[in-house]
Design goal:
Elements lengths: L15 E7 L13 E8 L2 E5 L2 E5 L3 E5 L5 E6 L4 E7 L12 E4 L2 H9 L11 H17 L7 E3 L7 H9 L7 H8 L3 H12 L3 H19 L4 H7 L5 H12 L3 H8 L1
Antiparallel strand pairs: 1-7, 2-5, 2-7, 3-4, 3-6, 4-9, 5-8
Helix pairs in contact: 3-4, 7-8
Pfam families: AraC_binding, HTH_18
Keywords: DNA-binding, Transcription, Transcription regulation
Organism: Chryseobacterium phosphatilyticum
């Protein structure tokens, strides 16, 4: 982390560590920590790669990153407020062994904001320990309605140009035959390899990219829902809303309400 190069998380002799930054700048380098990590986006949005999957953290959402999970930040909005909390946790509890991305309920939001008073505190503090122990003990309940909004990065090099094209043209009408030509594969072979590598069909992958990008736009508060729908390639607000709900299990209007 280059927000403050003097802090080395794994050398801190305390069970919890709070780190709050406005306009956070983070090294784009894969790394891991001995402690687990809760990343909360108060405003803006953040992309995080964890174990070769890219997750989007919209405003008022958080991600739990398990201990020793290899991760890095990818990109973020121009102005972002992040609260990161490191914790020694009971690794026998299955919750703490897996990545979780979830909407932050009001009570957890207030607890996180209260913990800001201990930001970058290097020495052990009894009150900090008790408070954060309670927070992390309840984290599985807070994250009960988590959603796994992510896309996988394929390892097969034959898919490199395909992935690049999908990411650059997600909003366009894409001819799958053109993707096959770019990969020098038959369409049938491309579809088989792509599904094996990402767990998604080409069409579903493009849909996920559109919805993830739309969440970015909505989090930035720059576009309305209808403007967002057309921006990411949908021809009507209705088709966007149906697609959004099929992926997220709630509507775009629900997402907007949750950010407030």
């Amino acid at each position: 982390m280059n927000a403050n190069d003097s802090i080395v998380i794994d050398e801190l002799k305390k069970p919890y560590f709070v780190w709050f930054e406005e306009n956070w700048i983070h090294d784009d380098v894969l790394h891991q920590h001995q402690k687990g990590q809760l990343v909360y986006v108060e405003s803006g949005f953040q992309y995080i790669t964890i174990e070769e999957k890219i997750y989007l953290l919209p405003q008022n959402h958080a991600a739990w990153i398990p201990p020793h999970a290899i991760h890095k930040t990818n990109s973020h909005s121009e102005k972002i407020k992040l609260m990161i909390m490191f914790a020694e946790v009971n690794q026998k509890d299955s919750f703490y062994q897996h990545v979780n991305v979830f909407s932050v309920p009001p009570v957890l939001k207030e607890m996180i904001k209260y913990a800001e008073k201990w930001s970058k505190l290097m020495v052990k503090d009894h009150h900090e320990t008790l408070f954060l122990q309670a927070l992390f003990n309840e984290l599985p309940r807070f994250a009960e309605y988590s959603f796994m909004l992510h896309i996988c990065l394929p390892k097969d090099k034959r898919l490199t140009k395909v992935i690049e094209y999908l990411h650059d043209h997600y909003q366009d009408e894409i001819k799958m035959e053109d993707l096959a030509d770019a990969a020098l594969l038959s369409l049938r072979t491309l579809e088989r390899i792509f599904k094996k590598e990402t767990g998604l069909t080409l069409i579903k992958y493009q849909q996920m990219l559109r919805i993830i990008k739309s969440l970015e736009f909505l989090s930035a508060n720059d576009l309305t829902i209808s403007e967002t729908a057309y921006q990411v390639g949908y021809k009507s607000v209705q088709s966007y809303s149906r697609s959004f709900q099929s992926v997220m299990q709630f509507r775009p209007t629900d997402f907007i309400k949750n950010m407030k």
